[in-house]
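Escalated from tier 1: flavin-adenine dinucleotide holo job.
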Amino acid sequence: MIFNVIGMGLAGAWTSYWLMKRGCIVHAFDVYNSESSTRIAAGLITPITGQRVKPSWKFAELFAESLIAYRDVEQQVLMQFGEKVELIRTVELLRIFKNVEQREYYEKRAAGNELSGIQHQFVESGFHNGISFPFGGFSTNDAAVVNLPLFLESIERLIVANGGHISRTECFANTEASLVASRTASAAEIPTVTCTGYKILQDERWNWLPVETSKGEILDAMIGNSMDSEAPGAALVNVLNAGTWIVPMPNGEIRIGATNDWDDVSEVITDKARVTLQTDAESMLGSKVSVLRQRAAIRPSTGLKRPIAGRHPDFKDQYVCTGFGAKGTLQGPWVCNQLIRHIFDATPLNTEIDAQQWWPENKG
Ligand SMILES: Cc1cc2nc3c(=O)[nH]c(=O)nc-3n(C[C@H](O)[C@H](O)[C@H](O)COP(=O)(O)OP(=O)(O)OC[C@H]3O[C@@H](n4cnc5c(N)ncnc54)[C@H](O)[C@@H]3O)c2cc1C
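Tier 2 regenerated the structure:
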């Protein structure tokens, strides 16, 4: 069976992967954009986030599935191409509380069992390995970093190796996908999954979904400068998170992110974001950082902070997967698999993610 998948970010890549696991051939369409949300994201998976120190939605279940799923792709790459790739690495994350309220949120949630299923250890106020915790914090090993460019490259290679192809063309569910695919298959109507990130808002079949844009900016940087190897934090091994996070990268650089702007829909970098991220990182590390690169992209978010997946109520064989917000790395494997199980096994979608709840006629 042939499927069209429009958009090859996290949503399209995971949809394609699960389709291939079902024996399908994938015709993928992706306007290559080196600055897409997936291509510039840090690939961080964190269990507890935000000012209110809140556990991520369904974290324990989704994290367990993510680890298995990314490692399954690593295994497929090894089996099909004889190459060993590391797509996911687990890391220790240190959360630094910025004020006493955050500490109180943490204590309240821990006492109320809201953090059950998440491994975490309280860190007292003070200095730990050169990093200041003025109000304390916690450490957790339930965190990971995914190499997203390598993940996308791996999925695209698997698509081609399994009889599919990638078209670097702009495409919409009601037009080009069906036309192009119908040239290569006998059926005129090919099932299509639209995974175009925030560009879904420009798609007349899907623009009723409650997707909102949230712009994010991110920095690649070095701690100190090349002459300053003794700078505190120069040998950073943990991910740090104090609202702004710092991820040590295998090449010795650090990645600092990410801003969140719900009003600005331009994909251009700003001085304001650079200064905010750089200042936050320097304050966390107690050391200067040198910015090497800055990038910006638009996340496909939703006000309710839930992903969206499902079948179009009116058009046969038209499906959607989007709305990952800042959690695509964690949610991608699970949400896309939910959709594929819904399509092939008629398993009901989790009601919180089902696209059809937003169809104007169903909203009541
Ligand atoms: C600065 C920043 C940092 C982030 N850090 C993290 C992080 O650490 N961890 C995390 O989990 N998440 C992070 N995110 C969020 C994460 O990037 C998103 O959740 C996720 O990438 C969204 O994936 P997507 O596939 O839905 O959309 P996208 O990544 O936007 O992919 C959509 C794809 O569709 C293509 N496309 C669009 N329209 C068409 C069309 N008409 N025809 C063909 N192709 C089309 C686009 O070119 C793109 O390749 C970050 C985001 C940003 C901006």
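Residues 87 and 313 are 36 Å apart (CA to CA).
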